[in-house]
Amino acid sequence: MTENIVWHHHNVTHENRCQQKKQKPCVLWFTGLSGSGKSTVANAVEALLFKNGNHSYLLDGDNARHGLNKDLSFSEQDRVENIRRIGEVTKLFTDSGLIVLSAFISPFKTDRQQVRGLHDAGGFIEVFVDTPLEVCEQRDPKGLYKKARAGDIKNFTGLDSPYEAPQQPEIHLKTDEHSVDALAEQVLAYLRHEGFIS
User: Fold this and answer.
1) Does CATH number 3.40.50.300 belong to domain 25-193?
2) Catalytic one among 106, 161, 179, 198?
3) How far apart are CA 100 and CA 103, in angstroms?
């Protein structure tokens, strides 16, 4: 099937787009349990990037399932496909010169490694939003833990489906110990230190 597909090269290059935006693109991959604070922190980080004059885009797990991934269930196979698709989207967005923030539970190490492999060395930044299960369950912002405990949701990450925590994330955030603003500043400090933004 792919033998009839040829890559089409564009006049405007990746380097042109990066120079225009005056930044080094990357993907900030926020991973953690449901209710850990991934979307909340990513949202705060993007607000700081916007204020700093950077060009970014935030991809959120729930939002993607309203459109791009609305045909997928929460089976293990479909979760893998969910992350594969989002990984390809992050690749396109970073090619356009953007700093991409991706907030997905992404429970499996192999899936996160696959997405890392799509990006240049250093361009995939794993952000572990490390929040204890009991804290996530107390927060339960969407009422999902309650439904899972009642048996209404099957294959729920952290309960009856595993979450494989990152062993060496580039950024390690503890939401039960620090404020959202402090965590967002921690992410920006990393981006400045590594030369992604000025």
Assistant:
1) yes
2) 106
3) 10
**Three-state DSSP class for residue 12:** coil
Contact 147, 137 (CB under 8 A): no
pLDDT digit string (tens) for 47-91?
999 999 999 999 987 777 777 788 888 877 888 898 999 999 999
Q: Are 54 and 99 in contact (CB under 8 A)?
A: yes
3-state secondary structure (DSSP) of residue 31: strand
Boundaries of every domain in the chain? 25-193
Q: What pTM value is reported for the model?
A: 0.90
Query: pLDDT, tens digit, for every residue of 157-174?
Result: 999 899 999 999 999 999
The yes-or-no answer on residue 106 being catalytic is: yes
Question: Read out DSSP for 59-119?
Answer: EEHHHHTTTTTTT--SSHHHHHHHHHHHHHHHHHHHHTTPEEEEE-----HHHHHHHHHTS
What whole-number distance in Å separates Cα of residue 136 and Cα of residue 130?
A: 10
